[in-house]
Amino acid sequence: MLRECQWRKEMAEKWSWMLAPWTRCWSWRGNGVGQEDDRHVRANDREYNDKFSYADNHIKTSKYNVITFLPMNLFEQFQRVANAYFLVLVILQVIPEISSLPWVTTTVPLVLVLVITAVKDATDDYFRYKSDQQVNNRQSLVLRGSLQNEKWMHVRVGDIIKLENNQFVAADILLLSSSEPHGLCYIETAELDGETNLKVRQALTVTSDLDADIAKLADFNGEVICEPPNNKLDKFKGTLYWRGNKYPLDNEKMLLRGCVLRNTDWCFGMVIFAGLQTKLMQNCGRTTLKRTSIDKLMNTLVLWIFGFLVCMGVILAIGNTIWEQKVGRSFRDYLPWDSTISNNNAVFSGFLTFWSYIIILNTVVPISLYVSVEVIRLGHSYFINWDRKMYYGPKDTPAEARTTTLNEELGQVEFIFSDKTGTLTQNIMVFNKCSINGKTYGDVYDEFGHKVEITEKTTCVDFSFNHLSDGKFRFHDSSLVEAIKMEEPSVQEFFRLLALCHTVMSEEKNEGDLVYQAQSPDEGALVSAARNFGFVFRSRTPETITLYEMGAAVTYQLLVILDFSNVRKRMSVIVRNPAGQIKLYCKGADTIIFDRLDPSNEDLMDTTSEHLNEFAGEGLRTLALAYKVLDRGLFEEWMRRLLLASTVMENREEGLAALYEEIETGLMLLGATAVEDKLQEGVPETIACLSLANIKIWVLTGDKLETAMNIGYSCNMLRDDMDEVFIISGHTAGEVQEQLRSAREHILGLSRVGSDVGLEKTEMLSDDSVFEETIIAEYALIINGHSLAHALEPELEQMLLETACLCKTVICCRVTPMQKAQVVQLVKTNKMAVTLAIGDGANDVSMIKTAHIGVGISGQEGMQAVLASDYSFAQFRFLQRLLLVHGRWSYFRMCNFLFYFFYKNFAFTLVHFWFGFFCAFSAQTVYDQWFITLFNIVYTSLPVLAMGLFDQDVNEANSHRYPSLYRSGQLHLLFNKRQFFLCTFQGIMTSFLLFFIPYGASSLGVRDDGLDISDYQSFAITIATSLVIVVSVQIGLDTYYWTAVNHLFVWGSLATYFAILLALQSDGLYLIFPSQFRFIGSARSCLAQWSVWLVTLLTTVMCVMPGIAVRFLKSELRPTVTDKVRSLQKAISKQSPRELNLRRVRRTSSRRSAYAFSHQQGYGELITSGKNMKVSTAAPSPSIHSPGWVQNGTGLLENGMKRKDACFVPSEHSGTWEGMERTEQVPETICSGSKGTQQTLIDSRGNSNGDI
């Protein structure tokens, strides 16, 4: 009965789902609780699963389909106020009583704009549709009695699918069995959390026995009851019911969509969540319509202009009413009222006149404005696509503008949110240098003893003596190889430690062809280094490790693994060598290792410490190595106590930790390693340059805290000369609040929040945007994922935002994709600043979609980020050119275009307003209808397009050299409401002069033959000619960078005006269309008079001279940064250009070890248990006798050691915030303007912060 009620409820939900389809597009964004309380999935039973109407595996990121495109697109387009405004005008123009212009003049341009925009939107969406189809049509092996190839879109919940090595997981599946022992499999989750290290998943024992038996898998009918769809990547709760038994399920049994199967031949899984309900898609966010700030401003301005238009219409309508009542009555015989005006109603005449003037004056916002804007944006997009300096040759990847609507927004970015792995880094770990017994290796020196910079052309060490070496490994210091060949004991022991102390698995399918399965990239780099220097890790069992030391096979007995933990920050192994000697090998964070050294190592520790400082100063990840020879009797006693501690039920972990501490003392220091987490080329320089442009860069990464901090130091986002680095690591909302409060107090310099002085200061500095400018000291804020979850709650998000914005650097680590989007949304909503998100993996899609601008890097983590982005390229360093050159130019050009466009149209249109006072407010136009039609389409369209496409205030070299030029876009200086009022005022004054100077001249002047020149047609031609010349001269003055296209368009448009003018008023057209071309011969007659040309010259001078005078005075008295740079540019225009001098500064830093944080706890237990071992015959492993007490100890330890997931919080920093260690050494700096810039831009003509 209960099951029947549940079924009825589910059927009701199904019908409500079908009857309200619009809810479907929203439901996947949430956690799904509204649709499901829990999920029931039965394997191999589609009929049962279909009752619940679960989502299929089809995904859709496109917005439209064939049916919805037209209504949705028109709805979006008419959200633009101007389009709605022109639609109203079209309706008015079809009313003959009020229309003084043909309706075609507005309808055709409006339809053209709608069609062009619709085609562009359809094209963009079509590419999204194609990418969706590419994913949906991927092939997967699905069990249908037998294995069959099915497209991903046809995979359904409850299906059993087979995955093969290096294949993407098609849906969220429950792991059933695999090719590895005990149902283990290895996955890479780079697209989910940005981490490339392998993770282990293990099937239930009861299902792993299904193995690859198709018959057993086809008969499997287990039912899973689990949580509903949600976006929590690290959690899963469910239960498997099979054969009358219940089996608990957690996240360790799940393979999520977006993962890649690695180092596992095959595995089978049961689909639990599919399509939009997978955790990856739940984190992807929603595709939204992005509009630039200029678009939004233009919407506001259109409303203002419409209000101004109504005011002018009201004034002229009132004038018409008064004139008709006072004067018009005397002219009824000559100017009879229309029949529609009943009872001689002058008020009704004024009402009709109002609408007539609304139509005549509508050209203050011509429809051609939006056509021109779209053309300019399209041109800017092509400039980005064609930029060879943003082309990445190794991958044959050009930059791509995937949208054409956001180009000018690139010139206004204030916040950049960047992923780390694959975005800032190459995702490659390289063994770079080491220190062994007080001597450093890794640098190259010339014959004079001077250090030589290592480049790709530097000769590499010859490893031919080692037939098991890795051909891809590169090292340049041959002295280390010589030390190996000379059998120096300390060097050999150093690499022996690297080959023994790890949790790497070795796979050797062919003789000598070794593949290391490292669960952290650091481990892989170190073991690979040992391999190349002659200490080859060949194979392992739960009890032994086999090395090939300089070609000879040596097997060590593995006695104990003292596993890594976040608190210990180190790992140790205890082994017995063939000679029977027992040794402990330990590697870990240098601060931890140095505290456990034997006092006799003091001198060596000091020397090694200096080397570590040098390594860290170069941005390398350091690790200290030590060993200890153990007495057999003492070790046996310690081992008995360890076995006892591993069996107790209470305080087991504390007891084991104490025993680990006991034996890891009195260590002998061997040296230190330096691994480079290779940054992409130019990342530090790019970050430094963008920082000088006042762009704040926040790093949002799924990596662990220490890994993220190391990259922060490598990029110089974190430096040891910073005043403080705050680490927010609280586990509760109260702890996080206290840490944020303490950090904020420290920055503000407040001793007590409740003090009167503190309150007064807080109120005084409540305006964040102002106070942030006053912060002189430099701070960094680092917050981890579980703390961020509390900080993003409504009660704390403002405190988080305020504290973060007071810091120069913000790093969020261990964050989920949805948290990335929430951080972006927090800044986007509250700071009212333009945000840009950049990433390369599917875990970055949500923040890319949330930010104003999304940038995808075509890296090693697939193409999901690129497909969701607005712009894409291959290297992070191209972001500098995208923003400082293309973005700033686009913003500058668009602002100049809008300023000029509004100016010329006010000047053109308001002549009608002045003329209204002299034509009895009769809605008579000054110009003939052809001039009105062609003015914005032909006479002035091309020059302003040329300016909007090609103009440059400064060249690209100076755009890079002086990043402070970018500030104008962030402050909206070039086009804002004030600038709009200025261009409006200039246009009004120009229209005033354009009308009254010719009016005054024609009223008093006569022709050469004595005839009157004040006829309407000559007056109209004089004003029209003056207008075209004035706006052409003005655009010439507004253009800073002249090209052949500019010259052609400006002078060509003038010539075209006169050619068309003479043609339209020729005898031939009049004879063919007498009703359309009534100004016959007027142009020839008018332009033949020298007085007309003098009036035109006087009008032009009077219109442009005030602007020239104002511009000259501003540049001389209050020059902007752009004015200064332009002056310098002109002064050196004849000199050879000097390249920007980017110099990487060597940073002296406190030591940092990233090993303990990029490693994962629990692998020691996995290795000693033997669960991940499989029999291999490729590599022979000599066997030695293993004492029985060791065998038993291993078994007991397997039960005693448990994996922990606690995050590291140093005990010495248990206060409200955590500070970073700093040395007394001050980093070398070359910056004179700001101590905060370690990578700076040097030019003899400016200071280091890019100012003039």
Let me know the number of strands.
37
Largest beta sheet: what is the strand line-up?
14-35-34-33-15-29-32-31-30
Biggest beta sheet summary: 9 strands, mixed
Shape: elongated
Q: Give the class from helix and strand content and strand pairing.
A: alpha+beta
Helical content class: 40-55%
- Oligomer, anyone? single chain
Measured by DSSP, the beta-strand proportion falls in 15-25%
Task: Determine the number of helices (DSSP H or I, runs of at least 4 residues).
Answer: 45
User: What would you report as the Rg, rounded to the nearest angstrom?
Assistant: 38 Å
- What is the averaged pLDDT score? 80
**Cα-to-Cα separation, first versus last residue:** 81 Å
Low-pLDDT windows of residues: 1-34, 750-771, 1137-1151, 1176-1252
Subcellular location: Endomembrane system; Membrane
GO molecular function: ATP binding; flippase activity; magnesium ion binding; phospholipid transporter activity
Keywords: ATP-binding, Magnesium, Membrane, Metal-binding, Nucleotide-binding, Translocase, Transmembrane, Transmembrane helix, Transport
Binding site for Mg(2+): 419, 421, 840, 844
List keywords for this structure.
disordered C terminus, disordered N terminus, 44% helix, 1252 residues, 45 helices
Structure commentary:
Helix content is 44%, strand content 16%. With 1252 residues, the protein is an alpha+beta fold. It has a 9-stranded mixed sheet with strand order 14-35-34-33-15-29-32-31-30, with helices on both faces. A hairpin with a 2-residue loop joins strand 20 (505-510) and strand 21. Helix 15 (489-500) crosses helix 16 (521-532), helix 21 (683-692) runs parallel beside helix 31 (878-916) and helix 37 runs antiparallel to helix 38. It is elongated and about 130 Å long. It starts with a helix and ends in a 10-residue tail after the last strand. Mean pLDDT is 80; it is low at 1-34, 750-771, 1137-1151 and 1176-1252.
